[in-house]
């Protein structure tokens, strides 16, 4: 059975020169950076921060009220988000004073329209600490990845190609998060960290075959691509199922609520895996092929005379 994606990509990669292969993913990366820069200028942050990182108050209630009725009821308070699934609603407020919090709590607990009430608060101090912890986790992941790559290959250009590909695999999904309005939470940070692992996996597979295996270069690229694309599409299929179930299953089976966190994680990973196909099999192949086929410098003639 033929692996169709491989048979579409492999001939294109083989017949396209290195500069064009490198230019395509770099153009996508440039657009992603522009989107992130625009978001930063507009909001002061490269990505919208969720309640985990800015603090806030969340109430989860059972109610028959509509979204419009809830918005009207809490119009005097900083209501950021309303999520309704069946008869369950989640109300998310930005930071409020202790007096405002007490008022909100009294309104919700004293109103017969609300049942099975659950509350969650994240303080600004705790959210600031989470921001630092998440940043440290991402930085350490990149440092660890870079160290392992340099130890494995001990060559600057191939190692930098892997690191550039991994960075692009993170930047492109962040740009899509800005477009779709997906906030940065502990769950979406986990999705971005997963992408570092997936990216390095395929890049190391390609780089190892080209640097450490003998044989025709096109054959080595084709062999690595066949294995790498199979791994990527298998992973993508699993996350696609997760996205469909967590996002749309409640339309078919009303008793199953949507799960926004799983929906966001799966969407981010899917976008990252698509970016990884571009970055590994276009960008990294182009860089490595140009590096390995570069003209060798001629050794100096002559030497000491006897």
Kindly describe this structure.
It comes from Methanimicrococcus blatticola. It is found in: Cell membrane. Pfam families: SecD_SecF_C (PF02355). The chain crosses the membrane at residues 21-41, 134-153, 160-180, 186-206, 227-253, 265-292. Part of the protein translocation apparatus. Forms a complex with SecD. With 306 residues, this protein is an alpha+beta fold. The protein folds into two domains: 4-49 and 126-292, Up-down Bundle (Multidrug efflux transporter AcrB transmembrane fold); 56-122, 2-Layer Sandwich (Alpha-Beta Plaits). The protein contains ten helices and four strands, in the order H-H-H-E-H-E-E-H-E-H-H-H-H-H. The protein has helices spanning 4-15, 18-43, 51-54, 67-73, 98-110, 124-153, 156-180, 186-212, 217-252, 260-292; strands at 56-62, 79-85, 88-93, 115-122. A four-stranded antiparallel sheet has the order 2-3-1-4. Helix 6 (124-153) runs parallel beside helix 8 (186-212) and helix 8 packs parallel to helix 10. The radius of gyration is 25 Å and the shape is elongated. The N and C termini lie far apart (65 Å). The model is unreliable at 299-306 (pLDDT under 50).
């Amino acid at each position: 059975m033929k692996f169709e994606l491989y048979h579409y990509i492999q001939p294109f990669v083989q017949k396209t020169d290195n500069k064009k292969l490198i230019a395509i993913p770099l153009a996508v990366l440039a657009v992603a950076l522009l989107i992130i820069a625009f978001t930063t200028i507009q909001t002061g942050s490269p990505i919208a921060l969720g309640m985990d990182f800015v603090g806030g108050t969340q109430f989860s209630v059972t109610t028959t009220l509509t979204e419009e009725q809830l918005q009207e009821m809490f119009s005097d308070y900083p209501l950021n988000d309303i999520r309704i699934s069946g008869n369950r609603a989640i109300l998310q407020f930005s930071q409020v004073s202790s007096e405002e919090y007490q008022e909100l709590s009294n309104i919700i607990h004293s109103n017969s329209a609300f049942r099975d009430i659950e509350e969650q608060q994240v303080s600004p101090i705790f959210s600031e600490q989470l921001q630092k912890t998440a940043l440290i986790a991402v930085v350490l992941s990149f440092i660890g990845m870079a160290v392992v790559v340099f130890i494995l290959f001990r060559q600057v250009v191939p190692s930098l190609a892997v690191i550039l590909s991994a960075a692009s695999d993170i930047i492109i999904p962040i740009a899509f998060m800005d477009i779709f309005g997906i906030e940065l939470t502990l769950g979406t940070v986990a999705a971005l960290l997963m992408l570092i692992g997936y990216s390095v996996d395929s890049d190391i597979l390609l780089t190892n075959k080209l640097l450490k295996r003998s044989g025709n270069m096109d054959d080595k690229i084709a062999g690595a691509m066949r294995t790498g694309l199979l791994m990527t599409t298998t992973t993508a299929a699993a996350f696609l199922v997760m996205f469909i179930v967590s996002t749309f299953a409640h339309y078919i089976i009303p008793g199953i609520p949507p799960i926004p966190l799983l929906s966001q994680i799966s969407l981010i990973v899917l976008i990252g895996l698509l970016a990884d196909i571009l970055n590994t099999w276009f960008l990294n192949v182009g860089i490595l092929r140009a590096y390995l086929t570069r003209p060798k410098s001629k050794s100096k003639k002559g030497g000491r005379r006897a």
